[in-house]
Predict the 3D structure of the following.
Amino acid sequence: MKRYLSVLFFVAVSVLGAEAQELNCQVTINVDQVQDIVDEEMFNTLQQSVTEYMNDRKWSNAQISVGERINCAIYITVKSVEDSRYVGDIQIQASRPVYNTSYTTTTFNFKDSEFSFTYQEYEPLVYNDNMFENNLTCVLNFYAYLILGIDFDTFSPRGGDMFFRKAESFAIMGQSSQEAGWQTFGSSRNRSAIIASFIEERMAPYREMMYKYHRLGLDQMFMAPDKGRKVITQALRTLDDVYSTNSMSVLLPIFSDSKLDELVNLYSEAPQQEREEVYKLLYGIYPTEGQRLQQLRKGKTD
């Protein structure tokens, strides 16, 4: 796959299409919880501004064709607005295609509940690499680079390093702002905790697992389904090692929110012994997901 080559030759010229921005982001802003909306057009303007900010910017020097743009989605739920201060949450989703199939696999699915920002209608959203502009752009920058890092990790071992470092730089800017969601001493699921987990060396096996799961597992299943699935099983054993290292890591719920339903489908036609192994492994990590995981045992024809 060409993006795999672009990881290896980061500044190589694309020969399969014109160079394009990296993200194809769908933005939705929900204001159902806002009381007494005076001007709905203000939210439409905000939605358009965020969409253009994510999609029109070139986030790196990676050579990506139009057809290779990373599909992602941002759902912003605004719960209250006072003057120009918005309070709510933001959910980020990203996916990537599986080689030689029409199937797309979710790589990231996360709901960030500590999200607030200041915005005036028609205010331009300005990217600044060196200083904190406002919390809206800082959060968008953080998740843009996180999406890129995760995606590139699935194509090459630790291919997302430079993107995670960029996300970390915005997390540091956010910490200096005193805005919610950035504090290193706050929630174990906040932005600083997320990026710390991705760059922490003892969590490196998680990133290696994501590469094996996608590039050596899913991408091979069109040619050899059983072989590709066995690689995924091996990758899941690494996930168990991550759990043993840090059972409270935010990477574990990130993985479950992205992958549990997919895994149930992937193993629906696997041999009973293989399904039992994966069930026991995942149940040991996610005991509260027992009902969903029971489907692993049943299989497609049981």
The two ends are 36 Å apart (CA to CA). Residues 8-17 have pLDDT under 50 and may be disordered.
